[in-house]
Amino acid sequence: MLIQQIIHERLLINDFPYIINGLGGMSKYNFIKIYLGSRFRYNDENGVLFAEARKEQIAIKFINVQGEIIDKLEISN
After folding, report:
1. CA distances from 3 to 31, 32, 35, 54, 67 (A)
2. Does residue 2 lie in a domain region?
3. Model confidence at 7, in pLDDT bands (50, 70, 90)?
4. Which of 4, 14, 29, 61 lies deepest, with the highest CB count within 10 Å?
5. What are the C-alpha distances in Å from 13 to residues 24, 27, 44?
6. Is residue 54 part of a domain?
7. How far apart are CA 13 and CA 58, in angstroms?
8. What is the rounded CA–CA span in Å between residue 37 and residue 35?
9. Domain, as residue range, for 49
C-alpha cells in the first residue's frame, strides 16, 4: 500500500536542493522517515510554495495559510 505524506520538506543532497511540497489542502501526516540531507520539515498547516526565478537568482518560499513565511531558500549564481 502506498502511503502519501502531505508535508513540506527541504533537502540538500550532493549540494543540490530538493523541495517536497504537498501541503496544498489535503489532510496532513506525520513524518514517517527523516532522510539524510533533510534541512527543514513542516506539517503544521497548509500553505503555498512560491518560486521567483531571475537570471541571477531563484527565490523559493513556503507561506502557510496564516500568511507566515515558514521556509525560504535563495540561490544566486
Report:
1. 11, 10, 16, 36, 29
2. no
3. confident
4. 61
5. 24, 28, 24
6. yes
7. 18
8. 6
9. 8-76
Q: What cell does 61 get?
A: 518560499
Percent of the chain residues topping a pLDDT of 70: 82
Q: How many CA atoms lie within 13 A of 60 on its CB side?
A: 12
3 domain-assigned: no
H helical segments located in 10-63? none
Q: What is the pTM of this model?
A: 0.76
Write the DSSP symbol of residue 30.
-
Question: Looking at the domain assignment, is residue 29 inside a domain?
Answer: yes
Q: Which amino acid is at 26?
A: M
